[in-house]
Design brief:
23 helices; 0% strand; 75% helix; mainly alpha; Tetratricopeptide repeat protein; TPR-like_helical_dom_sf; 4 domains; signal
């Protein structure tokens, strides 16, 4: 219903007064008059006719001006104020209409039974003029006078209160609207409530509404973003990640920056292997650009996850992309982790020759280790010497100790053989006194074997 018809009831009451049907309704408490005089009555009916029948507000205003120039009794004054409000509404003079209605109330020309409706009409007029403070004032008077807002009026009250930053009061009315509408409420009701819950800090209720909406619209990106945003704002990054992950798995996140956010989330929450799988899959699908930096990240993720066999082809491709000594160094380390020593040496030597290796000493140590594991002891000593660092010196000391231990063990074995053979010779000499037939056959060669053992011991000791 348009604002120009909001005073229809007041006009009808005015017409009834003119016919003497409702005289008491236009009287103030102190007014004893109960009817129009003949002159004013004719003018009143003429003005009312121009308004209601002829729809000629300007003509009605002219007649109303004549009426007000008459000497009016109290009854006539009340009726003229109410009719004047209706005419001014039709003419678009809303401020003038309100002045007439407020004057009628203040002077007692609006009986208690009509005040509720009049307050409502003033509320609507102020609302149409965006005078929200006055609209709110008269909405409160209307409710206090017994007004019972229907669904649309509750929505108006919610909006007015929100615009005046009265969010708690706005929420009270908006929740009533939502209860009346039920789960199938229009989207603007949901959005308005979500906004109010956000403004009043009621995140649990906001989340409940968002989830309800999400069930209705599972592919609506804005809802997912709102839920994730709330978790971020509440410093609940793990929950925000779960929402983002669901969005990715549901095919909602397709842009490169969105996918990289998922990769970084996986990595942050100690899931480097899953991060690497997503990154590799999306690079192969063409949604993430296969740059050197992306390949380097993928290699890092696989290495942190100790998936060295998966990291190696990535590192090889990255090394070729940029001819990077640092990447060849990483390749060598990965081969070393898999104990593929020949390939480890080849990659590390290439890394040193290419340049860009962050720690040449460590690279040489790994080269030395790869040679040591393949029994190239001379090559290993050379590499460890080239390292010229604590690790290299430690390996050299270990190899010397290992070699010294081996020499000592050979000498001990030679010495033990001499002692064992000497003991054998003494037993043979003891048996000889009993006769030749009592000595074991080995006694025949004991002197020869003892001489050989002593000679070998002397050779080892002198070396």
């Amino acid at each position: 219903m348009g604002i120009k018809t909001v005073l229809k009831s007041a006009v009808i009451v005015g017409a009834m007064c003119a016919m003497g049907a409702g005289a008491a309704m236009a009287q103030s408490a102190n007014c004893e008059a109960t009817e129009f005089s003949s002159t004013t009555g004719e003018l009143y009916l003429k003005a009312e006719t121009e308004l209601l029948q002829n729809k000629n507000a300007q003509a009605a205003l002219g007649v109303l001006s004549q009426l007000r120039n008459q000497e009016l009794n109290c009854y006539e004054q009340g009726a003229v104020l109410k009719l004047g409000a209706a005419i001014k509404i039709e003419a678009g003079d809303y401020a003038g209409a309100v002045r007439d209605l407020e004057a009628a109330i203040n002077q007692g020309y609006i009986p208690a039974s009509e005040r509720k409706t009049t307050y409502y009409n003033i509320f609507q007029i102020y609302l149409s003029q965006n005078n929200l403070d006055k609209a709110l004032e008269y909405s409160q008077k209307w409710v206090q006078a017994g007004g019972s807002p229907d669904r649309d009026a509750k929505w108006q009250l919610a909006v007015v209160n929100q615009k005046l930053n009265r969010n708690q009061e706005a929420l009270r009315w908006a929740e009533q609207v939502f209860r009346e509408d039920g789960p199938n409420a229009e989207r603007q009701v949901y959005d308005f409530l979500i906004y109010l819950y956000d403004e009043t800090g009621q995140r649990a209720k906001k989340a409940e509404l968002l989830e309800t909406l999400l069930a209705r619209n599972p592919n609506e990106r804005r809802l997912w973003d709102a839920i994730a945003g709330d978790y971020f704002a509440g410093e609940q990054e793990r929950k925000a990640f779960e929402v983002q992950k669901a969005m990715y798995l549901g095919g909602i996140l397709t842009k490169e920056d969105e996918i990289m956010r998922i990769v970084n989330f996986y990595n942050r929450f100690n899931a480097p292997y899953q991060a690497a799988q997503v990154l590799e899959k999306e690079m192969n699908a063409g949604r993430v650009s296969k740059t050197y930096e992306r390949m380097e990240l993928l290699a890092n993720l696989y290495q942190v996850a100790r998936e060295f066999d998966r990291a190696i082809p990535v590192i090889e491709e990255a090394a070729r992309m940029n001819n990077s000594g640092a990447m060849y160094e990483r390749l060598g380390r990965s081969y070393a982790e898999l104990q593929q020593w020949a390939k480890a040496e080849e990659a590390l030597v290439r890394a040193i020759n290419t340049g860009g290796v962050q720690d040449r000493g460590l690279a040489w140590v790994l080269i030395g280790q790869s040679r040591y594991e393949r029994d190239d002891r001379a090559g290993a000593r050379e590499a460890f010497s080239n390292a010229n660092n604590r690790g290299g010196r430690g390996w050299l000391a270990f190899m010397r100790s290992e070699e010294q231990t081996e020499v000592a063990l050979v000498r001990f074995e030679a010495q033990s053989l001499v002692q064992d053979t000497e003991n054998e010779k003494r037993r043979c000499e003891q048996l000889a006194v009993l006769g030749e037939g009592n000595a074991p056959e080995a006694c025949a060669t004991v002197d020869e074997r003892l001489a050989e053992a002593r000679e070998e011991f002397q050779r080892i000791s002198g070396s």
